[in-house]
Amino acid sequence: MTHLTTMTASRALDRIADWQTALRAENKSPGTICLYADGATRYLRWCADGNLLPMSRAVLNSWIAGLLDGGSSPGTARIRQLAVRRFASWLTAGGEIHADPFPGVKAPRYEPPLVEPLTDGELRALLATCAVHDDRAGKGARPEDTLNDRRDEAIIRIMFETAIRSGELVDLQLDDLDLIGRLATIRRGKGGRGRVIPIGQATAQALLVYLAHREQHPLAASPDLWLGNRGQKFGREGLSRALRRRAKRAGVQGFRPHRLRHTAAHRWLAAGGSESGLMAIAGWTRSDMLVRYTRAGASERAADEARRLNLGDL
Predict the structure, then answer these.
(1) Which of 281, 252, 282, 304 is nearest to 117 (CA)?
(2) DSSP helix/strand/coil, 278
(3) pLDDT at residue 296 tops 90
(4) What are phi and psi of 107, to 5 degrees?
(5) Can you say whether the dihedral through the CA atoms of 210, 256, 269, 167 is positive or negative?
(6) Residues 55, 65: Cα–Cα separation, whole Å
(7) At CB < 8 A and 24+ separation, what contacts does 241-250 make?
(8) pLDDT at 297 (0 to 100)
(9) SS3 for 56?
(10) Does residue 262 contact residue 122 with C-beta atoms inside 8 Å?
(11) What pTM value is reported for the model?
């Protein structure tokens, strides 16, 4: 057992790989493991550069204050502080330090930003870009362009319909689709939880068209649902680039892929869907997440509902 004031940053860094293994054993999602490991590693390297002992409230607070002063968002600082605290708790549980050094440490105050959902017009504009091939040479669309168009349309549709997370989407496998039953299975979402989400006729049709073009891809035998250019796989970075490119062509301002999840949540409630149903398909276990994702359109939905109820008519 190491006294918490004597554990060096170098020694702590040596324990990161074992901590990642422990997180995998806890069935944490790959995204969560990556975030935690990145946050703790950044802190420990900062401590090492300054010859500081990391298991200290004062040192951790100094690092977080420096992040905020340097322009990092409160959300980023909050996540990185949480990563360090979780790492310290793991060291404590394993007996490597005699007590958790950060009990009661408060996270940076963070107000989630108000994210406006995309309008129906913006969604149609995004989809319209998937029907236009980039034909600068005048020789017709290349096969990879056609594949990208069909893939991106299917992705946009499934994202604004089901509120699927970006990480869950790129992790989908071919076997996760049931296009006859119009269902998609998410094997492991946030917190290691899986779920089955329904998809509508338009989305199922877009997927069928994409799958027909996918058969010509060099990696057609891959179990991964989504494939990229030049024989490449299609991960989170590829997804972000593809969707931002579509948004630029469509003239959609302030676009981030995550806006499609907010949009799906808003459209569900605006169409009269239940909050419990939305929580189920979005993979939320806490009602505060529902409020966070749908508060931008709350007034609009309330006004529409009030007009339907017409309670002033006596």
Answers:
(1) 252
(2) helix
(3) no
(4) -75, 155
(5) positive
(6) 16
(7) 242/148, 242/151, 242/152, 242/155, 243/152, 243/155, 243/156, 246/126, 246/129, 246/130, 246/152, 246/156, 247/126, 249/129, 249/132, 250/122, 250/125, 250/126, 250/128, 250/129
(8) 74
(9) coil
(10) no
(11) 0.70
Query: What's the token pair of residue 312?
Result: 């002033």
Question: What are the structure tokens assigned to 257, written together?
Answer: 């892929």
d(CA 5, CA 1): 12
Phi, psi of 117 (to 5 degrees): -70, 155
Q: Which residue has the higher pLDDT, 4 or 192?
A: 192
CB 204 within 8 A of CB 190: no
**Residue reference for tokens 């959609």:** 252
Give the ranges where the chain is alpha helix by DSSP (H). Answer: 9-13, 16-25, 30-49, 57-69, 74-93, 120-129, 143-162, 166-170, 201-214, 236-250, 259-270, 275-282, 287-294, 298-309
What is the rounded average pLDDT of the residues 52-62? Answer: 95
Cα distance between residue 205 and residue 189, in whole Å: 25
CB 210 within 8 A of CB 260: no
Please identify which residue in the block is written with the tokens 């860094």: 13
- The 10 Å Cβ neighbour count of residue 209 is 15
Categorize the per-residue pLDDT at 145 as very low, low, confident or very high, splitting at 50, 70 and 90: confident
Find how far residue 171's CA is from the centre of its chain: 11
For residue 103, with 0-12 CB atoms within 10 Å meaning exposed, 13-18 middle and 19 or more buried, which class applies? exposed
End-to-end CA distance of the chain: 75
Buried b (16+ CB within 10 A) or exposed e, 15-27: bbeebbeebeeee
Place of tokens 């496998």: 173
